[in-house]
Amino acid sequence: MNATPDADELHVSRSEHGDQWTVTVDFGPAAGDAVTVEIVGDTAIVAVDAPGQRTEFDVPLPEGGGDVTVNNGILTVESAA
Predict the structure, then answer these.
(1) HEC profile for 33-68?
(2) 3-state secondary structure of 33
(3) One Pfam family, short name please (predicted)?
(4) What predicted TM-score, i.e. pTM, was given to this entire model?
(5) What is the DSSP letter of 3?
(6) What 8-state DSSP symbol labels residue 53?
(7) Which of 24, 58, 59, 70 is the least crowded, having the fewest Cβ atoms under 10 Å away?
C-alpha cells in the first residue's frame, strides 16, 4: 500500500489468523479525526486531510466482506470471519 510520499512515517501492520487477516495503519496523533473512509463496492477509499499528510488512496476489501474502521487516526481493515 503506497499511502503517501512520507509512507516511511506510517506504522503499518498485518496479521493473519487462519483464513482471516487484519491490516492496521496508524497515521499518528496529528491525523486524529482527519482520516475518513468511504466504501464503494469492494474498495475502501481512504482520505487523510491532516497537516503534513494530505492524501487519498484505495484499499481493496477482502472477498466475502470485511470490516473497515477508523478511530483516532488508526485505520483497521479486517477480513470477514
Answers:
(1) HHEEEEEECCEEEEEEEECCEEEEEEEECCCCCEEE
(2) helix
(3) DUF7127
(4) 0.69
(5) -
(6) E
(7) 58
Domains in the chain (CATH in brackets) are 7-79 (2.60.40.790)
CA atoms within 13 A on the CB side of 3: 23
Place of cell 512520507: 6
Instruction: Dump pLDDT digits (tens) for 54-78.
Output: 888 888 877 777 788 888 888 898 8
What is the number of residues in the chain? Answer: 81
14 near 1, Cβ under 8 Å?
no
Using DSSP, state whether 9 is helix, strand or coil.
helix
Q: Which amino acid is at 78?
A: E
User: Could you give the CA distance from residue 48 to residue 29 in angstroms, rounded to a whole number?
Assistant: 12
Give yes or no for a contact between 43 and 59, defined as CB atoms under 8 angstroms apart. Answer: yes
CA neighbor of 31 nearest in space, from 2, 76, 78, 70: 70
Residue with cell 479486517: 78
